[in-house]
């Protein structure tokens, strides 16, 4: 399990960082932990699964 920052997730999904933060607030992407500054860190496997699901139901 590798952890991804908000910026890395946004780049991977092709969305803005604000969208990733909203997905986390809405519990569509669950942060595994927070870094020292309180920023969310996401499991790369969870991010990949989210992307696959989003593409199946109509895109990001």
Automatic annotation (TrEMBL):
Listed InterPro entries: DNA-bd_dom_put_sf, MerR-type_HTH_dom
Molecular-function GO terms, alphabetical: DNA binding
Gene3D superfamilies: 1.10.1660.10
Top-rank taxon: Bacteria
Pfam families per UniProt: MerR_1 (PF13411)
HTH merR-type domain mapped to chain residues: 4-49
Protein name: MerR HTH family regulatory protein
Annotated source species: Pseudoalteromonas denitrificans DSM 6059
